[in-house]
Amino acid sequence: MQSPAPLPEPTPQSPAAATPGVWWAVCLCAAWCGTCGVYRPLFDELALAHPDVRFEWVDIEDDAEIAGDLDVETFPTLLIADGERALFLGPLLPQAPVLGRLLASLQAASPQAGGAGGTGGEAQEVFERVRAARSR
């Protein structure tokens, strides 16, 4: 199976560039995962529909240093962060509308809107590694 083309890197003037307060949606996947291969085009379409969110596709085998000790058991696994804090880390149905609703729900309940804080712990560590690796 041929891998889909990678997402273009945000430009420095883009609202999705690596700046505080910019939301991130990170899909943790593996090249051998058939479900991930089917999900990738949907994830890419969602990225185009949400230019204010930075979408990243992370192959946990190719980018093992990003995943660290995280044990991903179910693919796809999504990490969503508000730019500073990881707010969600877990498996998600491989359907673009599900991710779209989750993202909208987290944005509406963000601390700036009076909602809850981050997930902390392992999710935060993974987000910090993703942000450091992909902000270059």
Gist?
It contains four helices and four strands; from the N terminus they run E-H-E-H-E-E-H-H. The chain is α+β, with helices and mostly antiparallel strands. The protein has a single domain, classed as 3-Layer(aba) Sandwich (Glutaredoxin), CATH 3.40.30.
What does this structure look like?
- The structure is a single chain.
- Strands 2-1-3-4 form a four-stranded mixed β-sheet, sandwiched between helices.
- Helices cover about 35% and strands about 20% of the residues.
- About 30% of the residues are buried.
- It has helices at about 35-50, 65, 95-110, 120-135, and strands at about 25-30, 55-60, 75-80, 85-90.
- It contains four helices and four strands.
- Strand 3 (about 75-80) and strand 4 (about 85-90) form a beta hairpin.
Secondary-structure blueprint:
Blueprint lengths: L22 E7 L4 H16 L3 E7 L4 H4 L9 E5 L4 E6 L4 H13 L12 H14 L2
Parallel strand pairs: 1-2
Antiparallel strand pairs: 1-3, 3-4
Helix pairs in contact: 1-3
Distance between the termini: 29 Å
What overall form do the CA principal axes indicate?
Answer: globular
Strand order of the largest sheet: 2-1-3-4
Computed Rg: 14 Å
**CATH level 4 superfamily:** Glutaredoxin
Structural class determined from secondary elements: alpha+beta
Low-confidence stretches: 1-18
Q: What summary fits the major beta sheet? A: 4 strands, mixed
- Determine the strand fraction and express it as a percent band: 15-25%
